[in-house]
Amino acid sequence: MSEIASFVDGLTDFWLWLIGAGLLMIAELAMPGAYLLWLGVAALVTALVLAVVPLGWQAQLVVFALAALVAVVAGRLVARSRRGTDRPFLNRRAEELVGRAFVLREPIEGGVGQIRVDDTIWRVTGPDCPAGARVVVAAAEGATLTVRPEDQAAQ
Predict the structure, then answer these.
(1) Model's pTM, two decimal places?
(2) NfeD-like C-terminal domain spans which residues (predicted)?
(3) Fewest CB within a 10 Å sphere: which of 45, 134, 141, 150?
């Protein structure tokens, strides 16, 4: 009779961990961050271990803690590897212009002028140049581009 009771207890623990895993994963949808997801994965792993090996509550907590540690570390590694993008200058449009050549819309006088890039007028700083001169963007800071005459850009 005690074997049946321990089997039922183990089955109850399995379902409790499985339900806990589901609740943690559902809670992840309502909260920002990705930690509850990994704790849900750890609870799922604990439930799967209990399906194979009956454990006391202390051992269950140890299995959960170890699984949570592994899941969180693995999740952070996965998230870090996915931070790259196929558009590295997204939301940094000025930096995307560095190295490109443009024609001055207005002359650079007193170190300040303008260029036109597509449908946008950019403020530029650099050595004095006449309107219509070709300049190369050397740097970008905020909405101001630093330019050099194209013939001096290679220097």
Answers:
(1) 0.51
(2) 94-149
(3) 141
